[in-house]
Amino acid sequence: MIDHAQTHANGNGAAADTEAAERALRRFFQAELPRSWPVLNLPEPARRRSSGRAWTFARLALAASVVLGLAGYLTLAGFFPEGTAPNSMAAPGIIGSNPGRHQTVPPMQLVPIERERTPKGREAESLEIDLPNGGMMIQVIEIPVKKGKR
Questions:
Q1: What 3-state DSSP class applies to 147?
Q2: Nearest residue to 3 (alpha-carbon basis) of 13, 15, 11, 12
């Protein structure tokens, strides 16, 4: 029997206890193991026959999934309008031009509305532009400061 009070006083009692427990457990489990292991007899692997019918079914399933995917894509694409979206980044046409017709565009009439100051204190002028199609556009133009005058 081990005197625990004496082994702890020496300072290495915990290590000795651990080693003794390891040796006891190792002896116990080694005694439980069989000396010689039985030989493993594996059965021969079963040969699987693949029938032509299985391959035909797999090919038909693949073809049907491709056809359904394509039909779904084309159906979904039919719900969207053709051409570019109004908010797309496509370059807009030139204002006042009408491709395919060679007509001269009447000159636009500029009507000054008022003079005002920008948030930086510079002078600007608002212009009303009458468009040939009956519309109207308002443009604000900053008036350049003459050198020597500020």
A1: coil
A2: 13
**Positive or negative CA dihedral for 48, 49, 52, 53?**
negative
Question: How many CB atoms sit inside 10 A of residue 125's CB?
Answer: 14
- How many Å apart are CA 150 and CA 138, to the nearest integer? 27
What kind and span of H or E run contains 30?
A: helix 13-32
Three-class DSSP category at 115: strand
Report phi then psi at 115, rounded to 5: -105, 145
Can you read off the two tokens belonging to residue 133? 């199609």
Q: What is the pLDDT along the chain (150 residues), one digit of tens a residue?
A: 445 454 455 556 678 899 999 999 999 998 888 778 788 888 888 877 777 788 899 999 999 999 999 999 999 988 887 765 555 455 555 565 555 555 555 566 666 778 888 888 888 888 888 777 778 888 888 888 777 655
Task: Please state whether beta strands 123-130 and 109-117 pair in parallel, antiparallel, or not at all (unpaired).
Answer: antiparallel
pTM (2 decimals)? 0.27
Count of Cβ atoms closer than 10 Å to residue 124 Cβ: 14
Tokens of 43: 């059965």
d(CA 13, CA 20): 11
